[in-house]
C-alpha cells in the first residue's frame, strides 16, 4: 500500500485524527510516511492546518499542502469565492506519486466526504483515487445514522471501480449506546469492507507522546496496528433484545 486515500462519510468525523493515527502506526512499524492535503479550507495564511495537526500528533512525517482557501467551504466553492484557481485531480495525483517515490506510505486526506467537489468541473477525491489506482479508507461516525452514509460512500466507490480498504470509526465514545455497539457488526456489512479500527473520542487532545504510543492499538494489522475487531466487538457486545 504505497498510497492510501483517506475520506470520511461527512465533515467532523475524525479524518485528521485517523490520518494521524495511521501515520503514527506506520512510523512505529519503521515505515516512512508522507501526508498530502490537496485543499485546506477554513484556515488563514500562517495558521496551522490539518497537515500540521497530523505532524504534531504522529511525529516525523513529510507534510504537503497544495492549496489553501480561507473560508470553511467545499474546496471548489472556497476557491471560487477566493478568486483563486482550484486544485485539479491531476495535480493531486502528480504530487502523491512524487511523494510515493521517496516514502513507504503516502496518506492523501480529503476534505469532507468522497464526492465533495474540488473544482468547477465537478472533480472529486474519487477522481484522485482513480488516477492513482489507490485504495480508499473510509472514516465513519460510530452512532445512529452512520450505516446509511457509510453504505452510500461504499456504493459510490464500487460504482467507480474503486476499492474500499476498510472503515475506521473516527471517534469511539467512552460509553457507547446500543446503536453504537450494534454498529460494530453492522458497519462492515454496510461498507462491504472490514472494520479496521476505532480511534477513541478525544484522542486528538492527547499529548504527542501518548498519541504515538497508543495509535497502533487503535488500528488493525492492515494499518500497521494491533487492534482486533473480534476482541473489540466482544467487549462491547449488545445483549439480545429481551435477554
Question: How would you write the strand order of the largest sheet?
Answer: 3-2-4-1-5-6-7
- Number of helical regions: 9
Q: Low-confidence parts, pLDDT < 50 over ≥5 residues?
A: none
Count of distinct strands: 7
Tell me roughly what share of residues is in helical segments.
Answer: 25-40%
**Per DSSP, what share of the residues sits in E-state strands of 2 or more residues?**
15-25%
Give the H and E element order.
EHEHEHHEHEHEHEHH
Shape: globular
The computed structural class is alpha/beta
Task: Give the gist of this structure.
The protein is an alpha/beta fold. Helix content is 38%, strand content 21%.
Describe the protein in words.
The protein is an alpha/beta fold and 243 residues long. Helices cover 38% and strands 21% of the residues. The chain contains 9 helices and 7 strands, in the order E-H-E-H-E-H-H-E-H-E-H-E-H-E-H-H. It has helices at 15-28, 50-58, 75-82, 89-100, 125-132, 146-159, 178-191, 208-214, 229-235, and strands at 3-8, 33-41, 62-69, 105-113, 136-140, 164-172, 195-200. The chain has a 7-stranded parallel sheet with strand order 3-2-4-1-5-6-7, sandwiched between helices. It is globular and about 55 Å long. The mean pLDDT is 95.
Amino acid at each position: 500500500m504505497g498510497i492510501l486515500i483517506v475520506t470520511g462519510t461527512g465533515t467532523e468525523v475524525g479524518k485528521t485524527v485517523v490520518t494521524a493515527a495511521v501515520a503514527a502506526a506506520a512510523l512505529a512499524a519503521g515505515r516512512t510516511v508522507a501526508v498530502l492535503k490537496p485543499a485546506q479550507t477554513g484556515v488563514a495564511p500562517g495558521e496551522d492546518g490539518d497537515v500540521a495537526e497530523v505532524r504534531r500528533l504522529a511525529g516525523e512525517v513529510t507534510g504537503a499542502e497544495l492549496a489553501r482557501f480561507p473560508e470553511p467551504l467545499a474546496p471548489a466553492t472556497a476557491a471560487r469565492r477566493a478568486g483563486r484557481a482550484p486544485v485539479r485531480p491531476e495535480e493531486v495525483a502528480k504530487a502523491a506519486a512524487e511523494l510515493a517515490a521517496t516514502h513507504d506510505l503516502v496518506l492523501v486526506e480529503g476534505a469532507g466526504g468522497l464526492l465533495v467537489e474540488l473544482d468547477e468541473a465537478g472533480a472529486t477525491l474519487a477522481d484522485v483515487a482513480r488516477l492513482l489506482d489507490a485504495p480508499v479508507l473510509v472514516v465513519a461516525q460510530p452512532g445512529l445514522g452512520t450505516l446509511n452514509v457509510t453504505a452510500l460512500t461504499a456504493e459510490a466507490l464500487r460504482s467507480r471501480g474503486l476499492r474500499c480498504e476498510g472503515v475506521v470509526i473516527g471517534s469511539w465514545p467512552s460509553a457507547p449506546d446500543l446503536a453504537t455497539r450494534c454498529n460494530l457488526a453492522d458497519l462492515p456489512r454496510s461498507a462491504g469492507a472490514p472494520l479496521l479500527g476505532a480511534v477513541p473520542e478525544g484522542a486528538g487532545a492527547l499529548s504527542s507522546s501518548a498519541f504515538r504510543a497508543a495509535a497502533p492499538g487503535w488500528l488493525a494489522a492492515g494499518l500497521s496496528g494491533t487492534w482486533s475487531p473480534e476482541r473489540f466487538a466482544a467487549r462491547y457486545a449488545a445483549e439480545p433484545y429481551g435477554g
